[in-house]
Specification:
The protein is of the alpha+beta class. It is built from 7 helices and 8 strands, in the order αααααβαβββββαββ. It has helices at about 5-10, 20-55, 75-110, 115-130, 130-135, 150-155, 220-230; strands at about 145, 160-165, 170-180, 185-195, 200-210, 215-220, 230-235, 235. It starts with a helix and ends with a strand. InterPro entries: Tim21, Tim21_IMS_sf.
Length: about 240
């Protein structure tokens, strides 16, 4: 038995029985992973910096304002300035167009002295005049219309009108439309004059022409002019 131990010792040296330490095993196992992880981290940082440095070029068409002014190149700053100037001009043009449309709507429709209101007043005068009612028929059935067109809607709204200003600064309004009654149909001509400083326009003439009948004069300022001159005595108007 004792003789067997030396033989075992010879066959199996003591150095061969020494096991590797736990720290060495851990170092050997972790070193490749740590190096891979370090490489991946450095590669990720490189990709992020590359993606942040590359962006599409800013032009007038694709600029959305997300890129700061300080990060723009000289050409991109020119493109952004051009785009902003164009947008400003579009806004100004829209404001001017809105103001023009609002002025037309007020002067033609909403203003008391506008074309629409003068047209309705003239039509009301015709319906209230005994001579006009006698030739046209029942005033409740008298309707007004514009010029002859294929569309009924266009015919209803196409009232012919014209505005002028003379040398004295007087505003002249000319309106022409047509009336249809149960008995006859006719043409209405209206002429209004508004002098400077006056808030209301005055009738210059209002006539109704019915085929086969004498012209009906509802308003005629020229007919009253001689009477106005005769009504003055020593420069004083007596009535």
């Amino acid at each position: 038995m004792a003789a067997a131990f030396p033989r075992l010792a010879r066959a199996c040296p003591v150095d061969a029985l020494v096991l590797p330490s736990r720290s060495a095993t851990r170092l050997t196992a972790c070193t490749p992973a740590a190096s891979c992880r370090r490489y991946a981290t450095q590669g990720g940082l490189g990709g992020a910096s590359k993606s942040s440095s590359t962006r599409r070029q800013i032009t007038v068409a694709n600029d959305d304002g997300r890129v700061r002014w300080g990060d723009l190149t000289a050409g991109e700053k020119v493109a952004r300035s051009t785009q902003q100037s164009f947008n400003f001009l579009v806004v100004i043009a829209g404001i001017l167009a809105t103001g023009a449309v609002s002025y037309v709507i007020y002067s033609e429709v909403l203003s008391p002295e506008g074309t629409t209101n003068q047209y309705h007043r003239a039509l009301r005068k015709i319906k209230e005049d005994p001579k006009c009612v006698e030739l046209l028929g029942d005033p409740k059935k008298i309707v007004a219309r514009g010029e002859q067109f294929h569309s009924r809607m266009a015919r209803a709204w196409s009232i012919t009108s014209k505005k002028e200003k003379d040398r004295a600064g007087n505003d002249h309004l000319y309106v022409r439309f047509y009336v249809d009654g149960p008995l006859n149909h006719g043409t209405v001509n209206l002429h209004m004059v508004q002098k400077p400083g006056e808030s209301e326009a005055q009738y210059q003439s209002l006539t109704l022409d019915i085929p086969g009948h004498k012209r009906i004069v509802l308003e005629d300022a020229d007919a009253w002019a001689p009477l106005k001159k005769k009504s003055k005595f020593f420069g004083v108007r007596w009535w």
